[in-house]
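Progress note, sequence design subtask.
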Protein backbone atom coordinates (compact mmCIF):
# COMPACT_ATOMS: atom_id res chain seq x y z
CA UNK A 1 0.00 0.00 0.00
CA UNK A 2 2.88 2.37 0.88
CA UNK A 3 4.49 1.67 -2.51
CA UNK A 4 1.33 2.60 -4.31
CA UNK A 5 1.17 5.90 -2.44
CA UNK A 6 4.76 6.73 -3.46
CA UNK A 7 3.99 5.88 -7.09
CA UNK A 8 0.88 8.03 -7.04
CA UNK A 9 2.83 10.95 -5.59
CA UNK A 10 5.54 10.70 -8.27
CA UNK A 11 2.97 10.65 -11.05
CA UNK A 12 1.18 13.63 -9.54
CA UNK A 13 4.39 15.64 -9.41
CA UNK A 14 5.18 14.67 -13.00
CA UNK A 15 1.76 15.86 -14.08
CA UNK A 16 2.29 19.17 -12.28
CA UNK A 17 5.64 19.60 -14.01
CA UNK A 18 4.04 19.01 -17.39
CA UNK A 19 1.62 21.81 -16.68
CA UNK A 20 4.39 24.34 -15.89
CA UNK A 21 4.76 27.04 -18.52
CA UNK A 22 7.65 26.51 -20.96
CA UNK A 23 10.45 29.05 -21.06
CA UNK A 24 10.07 30.86 -24.37
CA UNK A 25 13.01 30.39 -26.77
CA UNK A 26 15.13 33.43 -27.51
CA UNK A 27 14.13 34.59 -30.99
CA UNK A 28 16.98 34.28 -33.54
CA UNK A 29 17.66 37.47 -35.48
CA UNK A 30 17.95 36.54 -39.14
CA UNK A 31 21.41 37.35 -40.64
CA UNK A 32 21.36 40.52 -42.73
CA UNK A 33 23.67 40.54 -45.77
CA UNK A 34 24.59 44.09 -46.82
CA UNK A 35 23.93 44.84 -50.47
CA UNK A 36 26.88 44.76 -52.81
CA UNK A 37 28.28 48.25 -53.42
CA UNK A 38 27.44 49.61 -56.84
CA UNK A 39 30.21 48.99 -59.35
CA UNK A 40 32.54 51.95 -59.93
CA UNK A 41 32.69 52.65 -63.63
CA UNK A 42 36.11 53.70 -64.81
CA UNK A 43 37.70 54.88 -68.02
CA UNK A 44 41.16 55.85 -69.32
CA UNK A 45 42.22 59.41 -68.46
CA UNK A 46 41.58 62.17 -70.99
CA UNK A 47 44.80 62.82 -72.89
CA UNK A 48 45.73 66.36 -73.90
CA UNK A 49 48.47 66.96 -76.46
CA UNK A 50 50.26 70.30 -75.93
CA UNK A 51 52.39 71.36 -78.91
CA UNK A 52 54.99 74.05 -78.30
CA UNK A 53 56.39 76.81 -80.46
CA UNK A 54 59.70 76.81 -82.29
CA UNK A 55 59.17 78.04 -85.86
CA UNK A 56 60.52 75.54 -88.43
CA UNK A 57 61.40 73.11 -85.63
CA UNK A 58 57.64 72.57 -85.36
CA UNK A 59 57.84 69.87 -88.04
CA UNK A 60 58.92 67.57 -85.18
CA UNK A 61 55.33 67.60 -83.92
CA UNK A 62 54.34 65.59 -86.98
CA UNK A 63 56.68 62.74 -86.05
CA UNK A 64 55.22 62.71 -82.53
CA UNK A 65 51.69 62.38 -83.92
CA UNK A 66 52.77 59.58 -86.26
CA UNK A 67 54.23 57.61 -83.35
CA UNK A 68 51.04 58.04 -81.32
CA UNK A 69 49.06 56.72 -84.28
CA UNK A 70 51.39 53.75 -84.61
CA UNK A 71 50.38 52.46 -81.16
CA UNK A 72 46.73 53.43 -81.53
CA UNK A 73 46.69 56.47 -79.22
CA UNK A 74 44.48 59.37 -80.22
CA UNK A 75 44.49 62.40 -77.92
CA UNK A 76 41.17 63.65 -76.60
CA UNK A 77 42.18 67.25 -77.32
CA UNK A 78 45.06 69.22 -78.79
CA UNK A 79 46.30 72.73 -78.05
CA UNK A 80 49.15 74.61 -79.68
CA UNK A 81 51.33 77.68 -79.45
CA UNK A 82 52.85 79.35 -82.51
CA UNK A 83 54.23 76.62 -84.83
CA UNK A 84 52.50 74.11 -82.58
CA UNK A 85 49.17 75.80 -83.28
CA UNK A 86 49.61 75.24 -87.02
CA UNK A 87 50.24 71.50 -86.62
CA UNK A 88 47.48 71.28 -83.98
CA UNK A 89 44.95 72.88 -86.33
CA UNK A 90 45.79 70.60 -89.24
CA UNK A 91 45.70 67.53 -86.99
CA UNK A 92 42.43 68.56 -85.33
CA UNK A 93 40.83 68.99 -88.75
CA UNK A 94 41.13 65.23 -89.22
CA UNK A 95 44.38 64.86 -91.13
CA UNK A 96 46.43 61.75 -90.18
CA UNK A 97 50.16 61.85 -89.62
CA UNK A 98 50.95 60.65 -93.14
CA UNK A 99 48.98 63.53 -94.64
CA UNK A 100 50.66 66.00 -92.28
CA UNK A 101 54.07 64.77 -93.44
CA UNK A 102 53.06 65.07 -97.09
CA UNK A 103 51.89 68.65 -96.57
CA UNK A 104 55.07 69.50 -94.69
CA UNK A 105 57.41 68.15 -97.35
CA UNK A 106 55.48 69.85 -100.15
CA UNK A 107 55.23 73.20 -98.37
CA UNK A 108 57.08 76.06 -99.99
CA UNK A 109 58.28 78.84 -97.74
CA UNK A 110 56.66 81.36 -100.08
CA UNK A 111 53.26 79.88 -99.22
CA UNK A 112 53.45 81.25 -95.69
CA UNK A 113 55.94 84.12 -96.08
CA UNK A 114 54.70 87.46 -97.44
CA UNK A 115 57.49 89.95 -96.87
CA UNK A 116 56.72 93.49 -95.85
CA UNK A 117 58.80 96.66 -96.05
CA UNK A 118 59.75 97.53 -92.46
CA UNK A 119 58.86 101.19 -92.98
CA UNK A 120 55.33 100.19 -94.01
CA UNK A 121 54.57 97.41 -91.57
CA UNK A 122 55.13 96.29 -87.98
CA UNK A 123 56.88 93.07 -88.86
CA UNK A 124 58.98 91.48 -91.57
CA UNK A 125 56.00 89.33 -92.63
CA UNK A 126 52.40 90.46 -92.94
CA UNK A 127 50.97 87.00 -92.17
CA UNK A 128 48.18 87.05 -94.73
CA UNK A 129 49.82 84.22 -96.67
CA UNK A 130 49.84 82.06 -93.55
CA UNK A 131 46.13 82.79 -93.05
CA UNK A 132 45.33 81.70 -96.59
CA UNK A 133 47.42 78.54 -96.26
CA UNK A 134 45.75 77.42 -93.03
CA UNK A 135 42.24 78.27 -94.22
CA UNK A 136 42.76 76.18 -97.33
CA UNK A 137 44.36 73.29 -95.42
CA UNK A 138 41.48 73.01 -92.91
CA UNK A 139 38.79 73.55 -95.57
CA UNK A 140 37.66 76.74 -93.86
CA UNK A 141 36.51 74.96 -90.67
CA UNK A 142 35.93 76.99 -87.56
CA UNK A 143 37.73 75.95 -84.37
CA UNK A 144 34.53 74.65 -82.78
CA UNK A 145 33.80 72.44 -85.80
CA UNK A 146 37.04 70.47 -85.77
CA UNK A 147 37.09 66.68 -85.57
CA UNK A 148 39.17 66.97 -82.38
CA UNK A 149 38.75 69.66 -79.69
CA UNK A 150 41.27 72.39 -80.53
CA UNK A 151 42.79 75.24 -78.55
CA UNK A 152 45.00 77.97 -80.02
CA UNK A 153 46.98 80.21 -77.67
CA UNK A 154 47.85 83.83 -78.47
CA UNK A 155 48.89 86.86 -76.40
CA UNK A 156 46.92 90.07 -76.00
CA UNK A 157 49.43 92.71 -77.09
CA UNK A 158 47.98 95.40 -74.83
CA UNK A 159 47.61 93.47 -71.56
CA UNK A 160 50.13 90.63 -72.01
CA UNK A 161 47.40 88.17 -71.08
CA UNK A 162 47.21 84.77 -72.73
CA UNK A 163 44.01 84.14 -74.70
CA UNK A 164 42.98 80.60 -75.62
CA UNK A 165 40.86 80.55 -78.75
CA UNK A 166 38.24 77.78 -78.63
CA UNK A 167 35.85 79.21 -81.20
CA UNK A 168 36.04 81.26 -84.37
CA UNK A 169 38.24 81.53 -87.45
CA UNK A 170 40.91 78.82 -87.22
CA UNK A 171 43.25 80.43 -89.73
CA UNK A 172 43.14 83.84 -88.05
CA UNK A 173 43.74 82.30 -84.61
CA UNK A 174 46.78 80.36 -85.90
CA UNK A 175 48.13 83.51 -87.51
CA UNK A 176 47.73 85.38 -84.20
CA UNK A 177 49.37 82.56 -82.23
CA UNK A 178 52.32 82.57 -84.65
CA UNK A 179 52.87 86.34 -84.79
CA UNK A 180 56.41 86.46 -83.38
CA UNK A 181 57.02 90.11 -82.49
CA UNK A 182 59.24 91.76 -85.07
CA UNK A 183 58.78 88.88 -87.51
CA UNK A 184 55.02 88.88 -88.12
CA UNK A 185 52.78 91.91 -87.83
CA UNK A 186 50.36 91.82 -84.87
CA UNK A 187 46.94 90.38 -85.72
CA UNK A 188 43.77 92.30 -84.98
CA UNK A 189 40.75 90.21 -83.97
CA UNK A 190 37.78 92.31 -82.99
CA UNK A 191 39.18 95.31 -81.13
CA UNK A 192 42.23 93.45 -79.79
CA UNK A 193 45.68 92.97 -81.26
CA UNK A 194 47.42 89.65 -80.69
CA UNK A 195 50.96 88.34 -80.95
CA UNK A 196 52.71 85.00 -80.45
CA UNK A 197 51.33 82.79 -77.68
CA UNK A 198 54.86 81.81 -76.70
CA UNK A 199 55.18 85.05 -74.75
CA UNK A 200 52.92 83.56 -72.06
CA UNK A 201 53.36 79.80 -72.61
CA UNK A 202 55.92 78.37 -75.07
CA UNK A 203 54.27 74.99 -74.45
CA UNK A 204 50.55 75.37 -73.51
CA UNK A 205 50.39 72.85 -70.64
CA UNK A 206 48.07 74.87 -68.38
CA UNK A 207 45.74 75.51 -71.30
CA UNK A 208 45.47 71.76 -71.98
CA UNK A 209 44.37 71.34 -68.34
CA UNK A 210 41.80 74.09 -68.78
CA UNK A 211 40.36 72.18 -71.74
CA UNK A 212 39.85 69.09 -69.55
CA UNK A 213 43.03 67.04 -69.97
CA UNK A 214 43.75 64.62 -67.12
CA UNK A 215 47.08 63.56 -68.61
CA UNK A 216 49.10 66.21 -70.45
CA UNK A 217 51.70 65.15 -73.01
CA UNK A 218 53.86 68.22 -73.69
CA UNK A 219 56.12 68.47 -76.74
CA UNK A 220 58.91 70.98 -76.20
CA UNK A 221 60.72 72.01 -79.39
CA UNK A 222 62.27 75.17 -77.98
CA UNK A 223 65.92 75.76 -78.72
CA UNK A 224 68.77 76.25 -76.29
CA UNK A 225 69.94 79.83 -76.94
CA UNK A 226 73.66 79.04 -76.88
CA UNK A 227 73.19 76.49 -79.67
CA UNK A 228 71.60 78.97 -82.07
CA UNK A 229 73.09 81.12 -84.78
CA UNK A 230 72.39 84.84 -84.59
CA UNK A 231 74.18 85.95 -87.73
CA UNK A 232 71.20 87.49 -89.52
CA UNK A 233 68.32 89.78 -88.67
CA UNK A 234 65.70 87.03 -88.52
CA UNK A 235 68.02 84.78 -86.52
CA UNK A 236 68.57 87.59 -84.00
CA UNK A 237 64.82 87.96 -83.53
CA UNK A 238 64.29 84.24 -83.03
CA UNK A 239 67.28 84.07 -80.68
CA UNK A 240 65.82 86.90 -78.59
CA UNK A 241 62.54 85.04 -78.39
CA UNK A 242 64.31 81.82 -77.32
CA UNK A 243 66.11 83.66 -74.51
CA UNK A 244 62.88 85.22 -73.24
CA UNK A 245 61.06 81.92 -73.32
CA UNK A 246 63.56 79.92 -71.27
CA UNK A 247 62.36 80.72 -67.76
CA UNK A 248 58.68 80.76 -68.76
CA UNK A 249 59.01 77.34 -70.33
CA UNK A 250 60.83 75.88 -67.34
CA UNK A 251 57.93 76.86 -65.09
CA UNK A 252 55.20 75.83 -67.54
CA UNK A 253 56.53 72.34 -68.15
CA UNK A 254 56.37 71.39 -64.46
CA UNK A 255 52.61 71.02 -64.88
CA UNK A 256 52.89 68.32 -67.57
CA UNK A 257 52.65 64.60 -66.85
CA UNK A 258 55.17 63.78 -69.58
CA UNK A 259 57.48 66.12 -71.51
CA UNK A 260 59.07 65.00 -74.78
CA UNK A 261 62.12 66.87 -76.09
CA UNK A 262 62.92 65.91 -79.72
CA UNK A 263 66.65 66.08 -80.46
CA UNK A 264 66.71 69.16 -82.69
CA UNK A 265 70.25 70.39 -82.08
CA UNK A 266 71.59 72.27 -85.05
CA UNK A 267 68.12 72.85 -86.52
CA UNK A 268 67.38 76.56 -86.69
CA UNK A 269 63.90 77.99 -86.37
CA UNK A 270 64.25 79.68 -89.76
CA UNK A 271 65.65 76.63 -91.57
CA UNK A 272 62.94 74.88 -93.60
CA UNK A 273 65.48 72.55 -95.22
CA UNK A 274 65.60 70.31 -92.14
CA UNK A 275 61.91 69.42 -92.08
CA UNK A 276 62.43 65.67 -92.69
CA UNK A 277 65.09 65.50 -89.97
CA UNK A 278 62.74 67.30 -87.59
CA UNK A 279 59.89 64.86 -88.33
CA UNK A 280 62.22 61.90 -87.75
CA UNK A 281 63.47 63.43 -84.49
CA UNK A 282 59.91 63.84 -83.24
CA UNK A 283 59.10 60.24 -84.07
CA UNK A 284 62.22 58.90 -82.33
CA UNK A 285 61.70 61.00 -79.20
CA UNK A 286 58.08 59.91 -78.84
CA UNK A 287 59.01 56.27 -79.37
CA UNK A 288 61.56 56.48 -76.55
CA UNK A 289 58.96 58.06 -74.24
CA UNK A 290 56.15 55.69 -75.21
CA UNK A 291 56.52 53.27 -72.22
CA UNK A 292 55.99 56.19 -69.85
CA UNK A 293 52.93 57.38 -71.75
CA UNK A 294 51.43 53.88 -71.86
CA UNK A 295 51.88 53.58 -68.11
CA UNK A 296 50.09 56.90 -67.59
CA UNK A 297 47.24 55.87 -69.87
CA UNK A 298 46.87 52.48 -68.13
CA UNK A 299 45.54 54.27 -65.05
CA UNK A 300 41.75 54.30 -64.65
CA UNK A 301 39.68 57.24 -63.48
CA UNK A 302 35.99 57.22 -62.49
CA UNK A 303 33.39 58.36 -64.97
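Output:
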Amino acid sequence: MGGLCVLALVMALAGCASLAPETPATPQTPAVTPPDPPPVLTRPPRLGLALGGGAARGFAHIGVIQELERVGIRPDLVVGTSAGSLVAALYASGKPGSELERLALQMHEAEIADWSLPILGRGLLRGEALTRYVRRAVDGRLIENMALPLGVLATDLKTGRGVLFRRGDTALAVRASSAVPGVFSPVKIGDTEFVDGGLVAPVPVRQAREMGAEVVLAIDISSVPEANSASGGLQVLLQTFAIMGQSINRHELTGADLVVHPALDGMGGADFSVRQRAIDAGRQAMRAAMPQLLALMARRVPF
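The radius of gyration is 35 Å. Work on this subtask will continue into the next period as scheduled.
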